[in-house]
Every structure is written in C-alpha cells, then in structure tokens.
Design goal:
With 358 residues, the protein is α/β, with parallel strands linked by helices. It is built from 16 helices and 10 strands. The protein folds into 3 domains: 72 residues, DNA Methylphosphotriester Repair Domain; 106 residues, Arc Repressor Mutant, subunit A (Orthogonal Bundle); 162 residues, Arc Repressor Mutant, subunit A. Strand 6 and strand 7 form a beta hairpin. The protein binds zinc ion. The site of zinc ion has 6 residues, from loops. Its cofactor is Zn(2+).
C-alpha cells in the first residue's frame, strides 16, 4: 500500500510546465491537456474558472478519457469532456492552414471560410486570433518559406523561384524584400540570422526543448540531459541568436508538452520546417501517417515517388528536428521491427504504445 507523498506530489506539479497554464487559466492550453484535483475528485480544462487547486492535489492527464479512467469525473463548470470552443476553432484553422499549404495558388478568403460555415469576416477574425497572422500573411509566409528552402539548396535563383511556385520572377523580386527581408542573392550568401526563443521543460519522455522562430515552432527535442538539448539547438542553428524563454513563452511549451503526451490531439501551431526539398517531401509524408499506425522506410520512399531511396528516407528521419510533430517515430523497419530513433528506441516504443491505445 503506498502512502501519498505530499511533498513529492507538490514538487512534481510545480516542475511541470502545464502548471503555469493552469495558474494562468490559459484558454490557449485547452484541449492540449486536462488536470484533476485529488481533493474534489473532479477534472478540468486548464482555463476552468473554478477556485485554484493546491499543487499537491493536482495531476495532469493527456485526455479526458485518461482522467476518467483514473477515477475523476468531469467538472460541471468547464465541461472538459466536450470539445471546447478553442478546440473547435483550432480544428477549423488547422484545416485552413493545410488547405493553404496544399493549394497551388492561394485560396480566397471565401474559399477558406466555406467549410467552417462561418462568414468570411468572422473566419478571418478567428484565424487571426488563433495564429496571430491573417490567412493572406500565412499564405505569403508559407510560400516564402518554400522559396528560402529552395534557395538554400539550388544553384540558380531563377530555378528556385519556379520550383517554389512563383509564376513570374519579376513578381518574386517585387516581394522578395518583404518575404526574405533581403534580396535573394544575399540570402543565399548566408544573410542575416534570426532570433530563436526556446525553453526546456519536463514531460513523461524526459527533458523536452521547444524552440520557436518568428515563423513557427522550429525544434522539439527530447533527451535525458537539458544542457545537451540546448547545445544541440545551438549546433543546428549556429547563426541564430538564442533567447531563453520567458513566462509568456512557457505557455507554448505547455501546449507542446500536452501534444507530446497525446499526439492524436494534434498541434495547431505553425511549424518552421527547415530542410532540403527531399527532406521536406519525406517529412510531409510522415505527417500523413495517422497516429496509431506505422509505415516502413521503403513505403515512405514509394509514397514520395523515390522507391529506391529507403536509406535516404531513414537519413531524413534522423535529421528531423521536430519530435512527434513530424512523427518519425511512426516509421519502422520493413519487417515491422523498431529500428533507430533519433531520440532513443525506448522513447519510440513509448510513443507508439501510447498511440496504439488511444
Ligand atoms: Zn472545471
């Protein structure tokens, strides 16, 4: 029979980045996790307006179902077992982001709003509130990101422009200063560097580092040693200025931790995915493997139209900087066995087991 260790329970809650979100009653964290209160037997969303719980009584749960399995009942006030407004809006906005990313030409506001059933005006407001940018800015940023990636890899600037879907280079040069903050040739020469904010927290898989550029989440790293994670970030972004996270930023970390604990929920944050065109194709294919299933390296190679490139696919998986968000843990050997994982085979196994249960 184990006794309740109040000090340990209190320390565990205080060390968890999700506690910051609970104390702030942060509606942005709704849907990414739930918390239960031992003294009342109730579980809540992070934003619940109920009286603050003592940290020693608090436990975190990835899903409402998990909180119920642990014997807690839903709070009557915040109704944590029903989808929140924020969750419904996040789903709409995520769908719109995917539509923008996959469209050849940027969809109109009317086209984007249509599936949501909202008026274009209302949809625009919701999109801006969730992402911080307008649909048009998101489309421009997405296209310029593709241009950046192509520039880094290709010899000719003109070729890069056509690869990225700009139909006339004169139009590209008109907007190049806006999207790159400099001319294309100076970007290729190395150019100026960005600021990257980051913070390190703890999750059930160990230490977790979350980093964000001005374009989106650019790294989610897992490991045992927080210092090693910070060094790895510096190695991967040698020219960036790294800034430790502040209070505001911890909210984002809480959201990512919630997502890592329950990947099926999805992460409704823009990602800043940096890699060669080939790596991007592999990573996009990984994002299309649903939670709870796996694919082999050979299958991914076939899906991206490069059936002999299984080894290169494995290398692209190993270069992934966005743990769980780009689910390289869902790629297995051709015989179904777990092969290497950038962040260790035990973490891969834990993630796959968790997703199989959900
Ligand atoms: Zn509640």
């Amino acid at each position: 029979m184990h006794t309740f260790d109040k000090q340990a329970a209190r320390a565990a809650t205080l060390a968890d980045p999700r506690w910051v979100a609970v104390q702030a009653r942060d509606a942005h964290a709704d849907g990414s996790f739930f918390y239960s209160v031992r003294s009342t037997g109730v579980y809540c969303r992070p934003s619940c307006a109920a009286r603050a719980a003592r940290p020693e009584n608090v436990a975190f749960h990835a899903t409402a179902a998990e909180a119920e399995r642990a014997g807690f009942r839903p709070c009557r006030r915040c109704r944590p077992h029903q989808p929140s407004l924020a969750q419904r809006q996040a789903a709409l906005v995520t769908a719109a982001c995917r539509a923008i990313e996959h469209a050849e030409a940027a969809p109109t506001l009317e086209q984007l709003a249509q599936p949501s059933g909202l008026s274009p005006f209302h949809f625009h407001r919701v999109f801006k509130a969730v992402t911080g940018v307008t649909p048009k800015q998101y489309a421009t940023a997405h296209r310029s990101r593709r241009v950046r990636n192509e520039l880094e890899r290709s010899h000719s600037v003109t070729e890069a422009i056509f690869d990225a879907g700009y139909n006339a280079s004169s139009r590209f040069y008109e907007t190049a200063d806006q999207v790159l903050g400099m001319t294309p040739s100076s970007y290729r020469a190395g150019g100026v560097d960005s600021e990257i904010r980051f913070a390190i927290g703890a999750c059930s898989l160990g230490a977790i580092l979350v980093a964000q550029s001005e374009r989106g989440v650019c790294a989610i790293l897992l490991g045992d040693d927080p210092d090693a994670l910070a060094r790895e970030l510096q190695d991967r972004f040698p020219r960036a200025r790294l800034i430790g996270g502040d209070r505001d930023y911890e909210r984002l970390v809480a959201q990512v931790v919630g997502f890592v604990e329950a990947p099926a929920i999805g992460l409704d944050l823009p990602l800043d995915v940096r890699g060669t065109a080939f790596q991007q194709r592999v990573w996009q294919a990984l994002r299309e493997i649903p939670a709870g299933s796996t694919a082999s390296y050979g299958e991914i190679a076939r899906r991206i139209g490069a059936p002999t490139a299984a080894r290169a696919v494995a290398q692209a998986c190993a270069s992934n900087l966005l743990a769980v968000a780009i689910p390289c843990h869902r790629v297995v050997r051709n015989d179904g066995g777990l092969s290497g994982y950038r962040w260790g085979v035990p973490r891969k196994r834990a993630l796959l087991e968790r997703e199989a249960q959900a």
